[in-house]
Fold this sequence. Notes:
By secondary structure, the protein is α+β, with helices and mostly antiparallel strands. The chain has helices spanning 111-118, 135-140, 142-149, 154-198, 205-212, 216-227, 231-249, 254-260, 266-277, 281-287, and strands spanning 6-12, 17-26, 35-36, 41-48, 50-55, 58-63, 66-70, 75-78, 86-94, 99-103, 123-128, 130-132. The strands form three sheets. A five-stranded antiparallel sheet has the order 2-9-4-7-12, covered by helices on one side. Strands 3-8-5-6 form a four-stranded antiparallel sheet, with no helix packed on it.
Amino acid sequence: MSLIPSYIHLAAPPFPYFLEGDRTVYQPGDQHPSRSRMGKFDLLIVEQGCLFIGEEHKQWAVPAGHTLLLLPDRYHYSVKPCEETTSFIWIHFHTVGEWIEAEGDPVYADREEHFKQFLTHPYTIRIPQFGPLPDPFERSGQAELLLQLGRGRRSSAVWQQQRIFEEMLRMMDLAQQDAAGSHAVEIAEQTEAYLRNHYAEPLTNSLLADELHFHYNYLARCMKRVYGLTPMEYLTDYRLEQAKLLLLRTEMSIARVAERTGFESTAYFSRRFALKIGISPLRFRKRYSR
Length: 290
């Protein structure tokens, strides 16, 4: 049994996508087959009995009401046969975005590399590799509905299956945020929303504290915990992301882009842009222009 909680962090968008799913029933003496490097995630939802499964050096006894997420680049094997009738739903999915396994606190996607590839700000979906089903997930019946759709016409089911699958991931992700400290998440999201809505304005630590009614150090701790960045680090990154969009989508001058995104001067904007992106704003624009 693995004692240290492990979490799988998936950068999105693009969101992971559903491939296939079904239900399997093992009788006493049956065991899960050994597989290596399947190239897709395998989410197991145990409904009855207990599965005994290993992945590389980890081993789990997965009882009813629990989930286990097997990773696409690992060796999976049966630890021992089932001791009782065991029923579980398996769901295969894949992601083209970055993912990482880590213990404890959240790990964040490489924001710059993610933007280069997808031209968007990443969100990290956090899913426990092993743990109990969140109450909303268990009550929702989403997994069963996902399987029922798989028995119908593919053309009518594919969109609904992806929507239901994303809702399942959402419930699992939000359950981990609540477990990690819902108040910190709430404060961090309020801070993020304020920064996004006012990024073009002059913002300071004291102004942020006054507007959000919390000491700046507390805001910084919440942001660091949830997003891996202080408010001012987040603000600078967000301003740069907005500047990239303006450089790509408009013919605004570099000076105008700097002004529109809240930088105090063109020189400071160009310096921070080159430091973060590796090239000047002008070269960035030329690189993606026809």
